[in-house]
Amino acid sequence: MSLLKKHTKYSLLDLVLISEGISASETLQLSKTLAQKAEALGYHRYWLAEHHNSIAIASSATTVLMGYIAEATKTIRVGSGGIMLPNHSPLIVAEQFGTLGLLYPNRIDLGLGRAPGTDQETAFAIRSDRMQAQHQFPEEIEKIQQYFSTENSTAKVRANIAEGVDVPLYILGSSTDSAHLAAKKGLPYAFASHFATAQLFEALAIYRNEFQPSEYLKEPYTMAGINVITAETDAEAERISTSLINIILGIVTGKRQYVPAPTTMTEDLIEISKHPAIHQMLKYSFIGSKASVKKQTKDFLDKTHVDEVIAVTNIYDAQDRVRSYSLFSEIMKELNKV
User: Which of 115, 193, 257, 331 would be 200's cystine partner, CB 3.0–4.6 Å?
Assistant: First the structure.
């Protein structure tokens, strides 16, 4: 009998990738369209990443994009996957998300991570004391929680617009460090297994075993990222997945580029995908027809027992992306009926 939880929520993470031949402006509009489609397809949340100084990623001003997406949708939750907190002042984060929370009540999520989301030189340009802030990540989270609390109304330093506003916090991570932290603070935990695969099961076990109930969350809540590329046939999915392989190759080799158009799956690309570094990053990449991806997804959920899965579809063509997310929605609806 399947151990898959009924009604496993499904969401998506958008890096707002810029494809070859597509302008940044067009890319932002395509993200808005994707969010509207995702809402209609039953996706629970639409999260946006934070990255800087990357030619192919347009999600550098995450909170601005969240407002753009929230304004264009009605019910889907919109959040950060995540805000890289050492890049920012906790006060400013509270003010920005408090504002979003007032404008779009009960729809805004604040996912927080401690990685820079860029190279070290750019990270220093963003905030010269970010290494100190990174070491103080737990304390910085507490500052945000304090700014959102109504008890802060008597403090000398206030984020007035955030006080009492309902914006749930989520801890994002790619290692066991974040699992310990999320458990200790009693906050939901999202693991970046769409690219950091090695410690997924260890991190989930730590979080569940060490979880301490809080005023924010009574029981552990787990989320995990997966790469999903679904098409009408296995062959078509394999073809459009060549763009993802080339994206990963660019990251590993330091040769960043716009998302390239798909090509025929060659022997060279197959060998590249088998390289240990790339193979490890793509471990939880479910590529194929609806039937193939459904089987892979069910196996993943049966093994991880996560409460929510976050799909990431980094491919070239916007219509292929919408189609993939549409098929994945069908998969999750069918699995939730089991």
Answer: 193
The answer as to whether 259 is a domain residue is: no
Report the chain's mean pLDDT, rounded to a whole number.
94
Q: Is residue 291 domain-resident?
A: yes
CATH number, domain with residue 127: 3.20.20.30
Return the pLDDT at 2: 44
Residue 186, amino acid: G
**CA–CA separation, 230 and 248 (whole Å):** 18
Domain assignment of residue 278, yes or no: no
The domain of 151 spans 9-233+284-335
Which position has the token pair 């089987």?
A: 295
pLDDT tens by residue, 69-107: 999 999 999 999 999 999 999 999 999 999 999 999 999
Structural domains counted in the chain: 1
Distance, C-alpha 187 to centroid of its chain = 16
- What digits encode the pLDDT tens for the residues 223-272? 999 999 999 999 999 999 999 998 888 877 778 889 999 998 888 888 88
Q: Which two tokens stand for residue 71?
A: 């304004």
Asked if 162 and 150 count as a contact pair (C-beta separation under 8 A), the reply is no
Domain membership of residue 152 (yes or no) is: yes
